[in-house]
Each structure stands twice: as structure tokens, then as C-alpha cells.
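Hmm, what's this shape?
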Amino acid sequence: MSAPETDRPLPAGGTVGLAEIEAARELIRGVAIETPMEESRWLSSVVGGPVWLKCENLQRTGSFKARGAYVRLARLTAEERARGVVAASAGNHAQGVALAAQLVGTRATVFMPEGAPIPKERATRGYGADVVFSGRYLEDAMVAARAFAAETGAVMIHPFDHIDVMAGQGTVGLEILDQVPDAASVLVPTGGGGLLAGVALAVKARRPDVMVVGVQAKGAAAYPGSLAQGAPVPLTSMKTMADGIAVGLPGDLTFAAVRDHVDEVVTVTEEEMSRALLALVERAKMVVEPAGAAAVAALMANPAAYPTPAVAVLSGGNVDPLLLGKVIQHGMAAAGRYLSLRVNIPDVPGGLAALLAEISACGGNVMEVVHERISPALNLDEVEVALQLETRGAEHATALITRLRERGYRVAGDPLTPGP
């Protein structure tokens, strides 16, 4: 038999109130940490007012998910703990459930979609949980987890759509108001909406004037369409590197809370998240996963849209090192700091050296060079050189291209196409 996912009576109004969130804060005291709030001078200069970073990437297990997972498991009955728990997650919820299960003394089985980040899988196993891969998307893993619960009697621990989970995530909102009492806007990375709903409920209960904004990846944004339709509507497909917020269907409870308490839900592109992640690494010295950079991406993309002081939640820092390298490169390309060029040069001794000297004189850093001698587009006395360059930004890239053309070089293709 399966246990119902919402097995406690709902508070008045059918959602989580300030009292439930304050009780959750007491429950997680000593388990989850009160994460730092760091002022970001560089981002403040971009936005034109104070910007603060709520560093949930420094939370235990590397994301905010430990809060809600522990509240949920700590409130299980002894009989429920004896049956064990099951969850579906791309990684962060998995680690939160695994840690909480270890702390309360119950077994945990976690279903992950194929392709879940390896560090998240290993960390989940490291906390003692069993990991099973199933399906391509989180929703596929959720189906498998529910089937497992029905077969074994394990208690299903939903990643976001449960009042205990929402209350636990809402403790982030209480900390934000304690740490930045004059906050005017709060931006929250959003997948299924557990964190956004919890933060909005907490913040609006104390400060109704604060603007609360959810930020979704454009390629996995279920909330805008759902809010427009007035009910949760599933996406037919998703494509984003931000696995932490790749959720194709809002929950019933989270949708209602977001609809009633969140001012706006916006989307950010992969390029915007890449630029934000790169800026956080370079300027804030913060390692975050792509989902964790979403709120900063929204601020950078539309700096005049949010009143200050603004708080951007860095929701998680569990990123595969290989993906981190790719995203940093992508961010540099999106910022114009990688440049891909194809240049025709005379096929004579010293021809390549002369080209490289011009690039060096303009401050470009050559990362890769490939010759092509046979092409219908080339004259007999020409060779095409494909170059991957590192530049200081879009203006520098434009100046470099202009210099090459002024020196008589024929730059082929789209010279401003990003490099690697």
C-alpha cells in the first residue's frame, strides 16, 4: 500500500502559514545552517542599488533542499519510518532526503532520471540511500518512485508539493528578512515551486510590500503557461542545463501558493545563466550550479526591473566539474570573450606568423589554430585558418576583427559566433 503524500491536515486556507514556517525553523535548528548573506558590490553596480546573495549553495548537502526534506522526515510516525521512504530527484532533493533519512534512522530509496549529475548521485549514495535510475525526466522518475511506494509501502517524499516541504523551504524567507530587513525584492530560482512558494509565504506574511519573483529556465518554464491557464499545465518537452529547476509540472499546493503570493515569474536563457554563473565564480568567488545562478541571471538581464535592496537566492552549488567547465566556457562565449574566426591568408612562408602577430598586437589570445588548404572557396595561393581566440569582451572582439580587416585579411563566416 502507498501512504498519502499529504498526510497531515492542511492549515486554515489550505496552505502553509507563518506559524508552520516558524515551527519548521525550530525543527531544523542544528540540522540545517543559517546560510550567509553576502553583499555583492559588483552586482549592485550593475543594478544601481544594493544586491545581496543568499548563499544556499553553502547549505548542508549543497542546496536548500535539506531544509524541507528534514522537516518532512522528522514528522513521520515510527510506523512510517519503519517502512522506509522513497523519493524522485535529479540530485538536490535526493541528497536532502538521504541525509534526513540517515538522521532520523530510516531507509531511503531515490529514483533519478538518466543523466543526473554524477556528483549528486555519488553524494546521495554517500548518505546511505539506494539510487535507481529511471526515465529521462524528473516526471519519469516520479512515476517509478510512486510505483515503488505502492509496491513496498515506502512513504513517498515529494520534492516540493507537500506542506512540510514548503514549510521547511520557507525558512529561507525568514532568514532573508532577518538578514536584510529592508529588502525590497527577492528573486528565487524555481522548478516545481517549493522554494518559491515557501519563501513567498514567509516573506509576504511579514512584509507584504516586498516583491517576490520566481525565475525559471526558459527551456523548462512550466509556471508562466500554468499561471495563464489558471491551473498546473504540463510541459510537452524540456531542454535546459539547469537540472535543478527542470520540472515540467507545478504541484497543486505550490501552484496555489505561487498564484496567490508571488508577484511575477520570469524566465532566463541558457546564455544568461551561463553569464551569471561565470560572474559568480569570477566576482563573488561562489561556485553554483546553473539553477543556482538563475536569480542572478534575471538581475543581470533586466537590472532596472527589481527594486533594491534586492536579494538573489543562490539555491544550490552541486555542479558536475565537467559541466562547470563547459558552462564557464559557454558564459565566456556569451559575454563575447571567446571568438571563432575563419581567416584567409596567403599560402606563403610566414603567412600564419604574420596573422598571429596581428592578433597578438591587438591583445587576442590564440587557443586553437586549424589550417584548411583544400576548399572551393579558396584561391590556389590561399589557405584558410580557423581560429579560436580569447578576448576581453565584445568590444575587444570587434576591435580585433576591425584590425584584421584593415590589414587586408578576409574574415570568412560570422566573425562574432562564440567559440568553444
